Amino acid sequence: MFIPDQNRQQAVFDRLRLGILSGTLPAGTRLPPTRVMAEEIGVARQTVVLAYERLAAEGYVRARTGSGTYVAPDLPDAAPTPASVPRVAASDLSARGARLAMIPAHASNPVTNLATNLTPNVPTNLTPNRAANEATSGAAGADSPVGSLLAGGLPAHDMFPAQAWLRCTARVLRGMAPDLAGYPPPQGLPELRQQIAAHLAATRGLLADPDCIVVTGGTQQALRLAADLLLDAGDAVWVEDPGYIAGRGALLAAGAVPIAVPSDSEGLDVAAGVHLAPEARLALVAPSHSTPLGGALPIGRRLALLDWAARANAWVLEDDCDSEFRWEGRPLPPLATLDRTGRVIYCGTFSKTLAPAIRLGFAVVPAPLVPAFVRARTLMDRGSSALSQAVLAEFMRQGLLAPHIRRMRTEYAARRQVLLAALTRHAPAVTPIAAPGGLHMVVRLPDGCDEAAAVRACRARDLSVAPLRAYFAGPPRMAGLVIGFAGTPAALAADLCRRLAASVRT
Q1: Where are the domains of the chain?
Q2: pLDDT tens-place string over residues 244-280
Q3: Helix 401-426 vs helix 190-203: angle between axes, to the nearest 10 degrees?
Q4: What is the CATH number of domain 162-399?
Q5: 8-71 CATH fold
Q6: What's this model's pTM, rounded to 2 decimal places?
Q7: What share of residues in the chain are helix, strand, coil (percent, to 5)?
Q8: Are the C-beta atoms of 193 and 179 separated by less than 8 Å?
Q9: What tens digit of pLDDT does each residue of 202-217 get?
Q10: What is the second-level CATH architecture of the domain 136-157+403-505?
Q11: Helix axes 219-230, 95-102, angle to 10 degrees
């Protein structure tokens, strides 16, 4: 988002001004504290202070002593005209997606049934990748560990802001009693979608229209909704290899054919994807932090991916996995900030920043596809818990999310360093691959070590490691274990690494 060695203060000012004028940061929105904002976007605090002062001088924000900086109710100029309009339409849905979009969801909203006129175009020369199926089925252990010690991808339960969450719950319950007798809006509560849009604008540089945000039961549901609506059985899709197991599973469940595209230290190899399946219908990528190796797409690959999607009339599902937790370099902007043709569907979650159990995530969807996504969500489960949504919206409205993420980032960075040091000292036989972001890392096993046996030995010692093999859609290129550090207190690191070393020896 920000170009080194250029005017970063101007970039911060322009980003916030555009968010204010576009309505993404509406009147009365409290901007993050300058220190928090600086840490989120990777600039000096004074840069943000000066940008805030300029915004205040030009009438876009007002500072309240002891309270913070708020968007002004009366703005000095009008919103800019959008630079481009997404070139997508409801007709870009798959045949199955079009059928789903036409199925009535309410007795009061009858829709003509056009299913008999829509025949899916299913290629006959594509068959499911056996290795992908085996990897997915073998990943059950990876996603269902026996405990939580060294479990990858899980936040620390002891850092959940329980007291603040309880206060927000009590406040919400006092005002929403009449709403408990009805169903929540399937697209998500308007107030939560507004808060998500403001959060994305302030911390990720992504200007999302709240009307284009669909609240989901985590990233997994967002991926499955997209797969059901945009893919027909037999459609080829790019998946990172190795990559996100459950995301690949969502595509398989929709009948898609995963194409294993190599992923390295720079994320998805776009050139390899174009060579393997140039006519693929969709690509599932995590541009900021691929799972499990942690590669991040450089600008060249990002532009190449968007160029391919535009030429192939394909979709890009962006899983912004663990973007809040980056340990090396500056935070990376979402791929969606570069999208000019409306081919990217941006998916985010609160599972890592708060807790998986609240089951709340979201998708930023191109406007022409929003009605189909809402209809499919209605048919699926009628929407996420209104109470959970309202509490989260209140938590964000009070400005509690950003400082909570900052505390987690500080603690997780310390736990990561302690675990790396303990691995070096107590488990020298394994080689850590410390990803620049995320809540887990990969440790390579020594030559000749049986990965499956090592996993069984670890679990016998109550270590919830995952086999690296499970993350490969094709033949595995290395043997290793995926271990987490976020939920591992520093005081336990040495003992856990000794257990890990003993497991590998056996």
Answers
A1: 8-71, 136-157+403-505, 162-399
A2: 988 888 898 888 999 999 998 889 999 999 999 999 9
A3: 60
A4: 3.40.640.10
A5: Arc Repressor Mutant, subunit A (1.10.10)
A6: 0.76
A7: 45, 15, 40
A8: no
A9: 888 899 999 999 999 9
A10: Alpha-Beta Complex (3.90)
A11: 110
